[in-house]
Specification:
This protein is mainly alpha-helical. It is built from 6 helices and no strands. It starts with a helix and ends in an 8-residue tail after the last helix.
Length: about 120
Protein backbone atom coordinates (compact mmCIF):
# COMPACT_ATOMS: atom_id res chain seq x y z
CA UNK A 1 0.00 0.00 0.00
CA UNK A 2 2.82 2.38 0.85
CA UNK A 3 4.56 1.50 -2.40
CA UNK A 4 1.45 2.28 -4.48
CA UNK A 5 1.11 5.60 -2.70
CA UNK A 6 4.72 6.46 -3.48
CA UNK A 7 4.25 5.55 -7.14
CA UNK A 8 1.13 7.73 -7.37
CA UNK A 9 2.95 10.63 -5.72
CA UNK A 10 6.14 10.36 -7.76
CA UNK A 11 4.64 9.67 -11.18
CA UNK A 12 3.29 13.23 -11.24
CA UNK A 13 6.67 14.83 -10.51
CA UNK A 14 8.30 14.37 -13.93
CA UNK A 15 5.68 16.47 -15.70
CA UNK A 16 6.29 19.37 -13.34
CA UNK A 17 10.05 19.04 -12.99
CA UNK A 18 11.23 17.70 -16.36
CA UNK A 19 8.44 18.83 -18.67
CA UNK A 20 10.56 21.59 -20.19
CA UNK A 21 13.48 19.20 -20.72
CA UNK A 22 11.15 16.77 -22.45
CA UNK A 23 10.01 19.47 -24.87
CA UNK A 24 13.63 20.32 -25.73
CA UNK A 25 15.05 16.77 -25.80
CA UNK A 26 12.10 15.08 -27.47
CA UNK A 27 10.05 12.02 -26.63
CA UNK A 28 12.66 9.48 -27.75
CA UNK A 29 15.25 10.60 -25.18
CA UNK A 30 12.56 10.90 -22.53
CA UNK A 31 11.41 7.37 -23.36
CA UNK A 32 14.93 6.02 -22.90
CA UNK A 33 15.31 7.83 -19.57
CA UNK A 34 11.87 6.54 -18.59
CA UNK A 35 12.82 2.95 -19.38
CA UNK A 36 16.11 3.29 -17.50
CA UNK A 37 14.35 4.71 -14.44
CA UNK A 38 11.63 2.07 -14.52
CA UNK A 39 14.02 -0.86 -15.01
CA UNK A 40 16.57 0.54 -12.59
CA UNK A 41 13.86 1.03 -10.00
CA UNK A 42 12.66 -2.54 -10.41
CA UNK A 43 16.22 -3.87 -10.10
CA UNK A 44 16.78 -1.76 -6.98
CA UNK A 45 13.49 -3.01 -5.59
CA UNK A 46 14.52 -6.62 -6.27
CA UNK A 47 17.81 -5.96 -4.47
CA UNK A 48 15.87 -4.53 -1.55
CA UNK A 49 13.73 -7.65 -1.38
CA UNK A 50 16.80 -9.88 -1.59
CA UNK A 51 18.52 -7.95 1.21
CA UNK A 52 15.30 -7.69 3.27
CA UNK A 53 15.51 -3.88 3.18
CA UNK A 54 12.01 -2.46 2.92
CA UNK A 55 13.21 1.11 2.39
CA UNK A 56 15.31 0.03 -0.60
CA UNK A 57 12.28 -1.64 -2.16
CA UNK A 58 10.23 1.52 -1.64
CA UNK A 59 12.97 3.70 -3.10
CA UNK A 60 13.35 1.42 -6.12
CA UNK A 61 9.83 0.66 -7.23
CA UNK A 62 8.06 3.47 -5.43
CA UNK A 63 10.19 6.52 -6.15
CA UNK A 64 12.55 5.73 -9.04
CA UNK A 65 10.04 3.45 -10.77
CA UNK A 66 7.34 6.08 -10.27
CA UNK A 67 9.51 8.71 -11.92
CA UNK A 68 10.03 6.33 -14.83
CA UNK A 69 6.29 5.76 -15.05
CA UNK A 70 5.64 9.50 -15.08
CA UNK A 71 8.19 10.17 -17.81
CA UNK A 72 6.77 7.26 -19.78
CA UNK A 73 3.35 8.86 -19.51
CA UNK A 74 4.19 12.40 -20.54
CA UNK A 75 6.34 11.37 -23.52
CA UNK A 76 3.55 9.96 -25.72
CA UNK A 77 0.91 12.32 -24.37
CA UNK A 78 2.91 15.45 -25.21
CA UNK A 79 3.59 14.05 -28.67
CA UNK A 80 -0.07 13.24 -29.25
CA UNK A 81 -1.14 16.70 -28.12
CA UNK A 82 1.25 18.20 -30.68
CA UNK A 83 -0.08 15.92 -33.41
CA UNK A 84 -3.76 16.52 -32.56
CA UNK A 85 -4.02 19.95 -30.90
CA UNK A 86 -7.77 20.12 -31.48
CA UNK A 87 -8.36 16.76 -29.72
CA UNK A 88 -6.42 17.07 -26.48
CA UNK A 89 -8.85 14.94 -24.49
CA UNK A 90 -8.64 12.08 -26.95
CA UNK A 91 -4.84 12.16 -26.80
CA UNK A 92 -4.80 11.93 -23.02
CA UNK A 93 -7.53 9.30 -22.93
CA UNK A 94 -5.62 7.16 -25.43
CA UNK A 95 -2.93 6.39 -22.86
CA UNK A 96 -5.45 4.37 -20.85
CA UNK A 97 -6.86 2.71 -23.95
CA UNK A 98 -4.31 -0.09 -23.61
CA UNK A 99 -5.82 -1.05 -20.27
CA UNK A 100 -9.23 -1.31 -21.91
CA UNK A 101 -7.83 -3.93 -24.29
CA UNK A 102 -5.14 -5.40 -22.09
CA UNK A 103 -7.25 -6.14 -19.02
CA UNK A 104 -9.73 -8.54 -20.67
CA UNK A 105 -6.88 -10.08 -22.66
CA UNK A 106 -4.85 -10.65 -19.48
CA UNK A 107 -7.86 -12.26 -17.80
CA UNK A 108 -8.37 -14.62 -20.73
CA UNK A 109 -4.68 -15.53 -20.88
CA UNK A 110 -4.50 -16.18 -17.13
CA UNK A 111 -7.57 -18.40 -17.36
CA UNK A 112 -6.17 -20.30 -20.33
CA UNK A 113 -2.74 -20.89 -18.79
CA UNK A 114 -3.72 -21.22 -15.12
CA UNK A 115 -1.96 -23.82 -13.04
CA UNK A 116 -4.49 -25.96 -11.25
CA UNK A 117 -2.17 -26.60 -8.31
CA UNK A 118 -2.82 -23.12 -6.98
CA UNK A 119 -0.37 -20.53 -5.84
CA UNK A 120 2.42 -21.88 -3.71
Amino acid sequence: MINCLLVRLTDRLPAAIWGGWLERAGPRKAGVVSALCWCGGMLLSALGIHLHQFWLMLLGSGVIGGIGLGLGYISPVSTLIKWFPDRRGMAIMGFGGGAMIGSPLATELMTAFAAYEGVA
